[in-house]
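Much of what follows relies on a compact textual record of a protein's fold. The record below shows the convention in full:
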Amino acid sequence: MPPNTTAFSSLLAVILAMLSITLGASLAKSLFPLIGAAGTTLFRLGCAALLLSLVFRIWRMPFDRRTLLGAIPYGLSLGAMNLLFYLAIERIPLGVALAIEFIGPLTVALLGSRHRADFLWLALAIVGLLLLLPLRTAEQTLDPLGAALALGAGVFWGLYMLTGKRAGALLGAQAPALGMWVGALLVLPFGLGGASEATFTLPVVLTIVGVGLLSSAIPYSLEMFALRRLPLKSYGILTSGEPAMGALMGLLLLGEQLPPAQWLGIAAIIVASMGTTWQGGRRRTEPA
């Protein structure tokens, strides 16, 4: 494939992955009144686990100590991240939750840094967070519990990045499927009480399958395609736009109106994430 075509197809894959994730989250919110945020998380993870297991044929791999060491920490962080995120978007707008959650991977990127520029990006992210949180007038307040849940999801997103790297090295392409099963087991006690058997009509079941596809199976495949072809710096900069896309999806599909200060807060966190990724990538390419 020519370089220009490869770059364009990779860019398109990242954009489609972000669109799929935010569409999946928007669709998931429609299930909350029926089966609850925890129930939606459970069935989404279970559906995605089943789909990925069939694709990657996980029954062919040995279930030994190595498998458990890779899958359990990764799956626990994945399950907690998804549960807290869905509980957060039950209370606060999608774009705001995504922006707050981005603090997690941003913190991971900054851990151990001794460069002044990185602390400027951290300061910008903190400013963005303050613009999002409920510290102003009554018209622009944010649900404190929703914001705290999004921050918790961010913490587990950071852990997901760290454990996911190890799981990928130990388990390869089967890691996400195994992690989804572990995550589903973690969420099981919280999600079972959210729905009755009568709730599961055909439209609800189809919506659950759609959420599983849009939130996991499709974006995972697209991101893997892009990661094999894009430098990590470029990939990181592109995915930093996810909170903005989430805010747009929330506005268009869910009618979630955000005040100007919260749009500025989302923009500040996006710029901080892009800056951190760009700065880190530039250092790795500098001669020693």
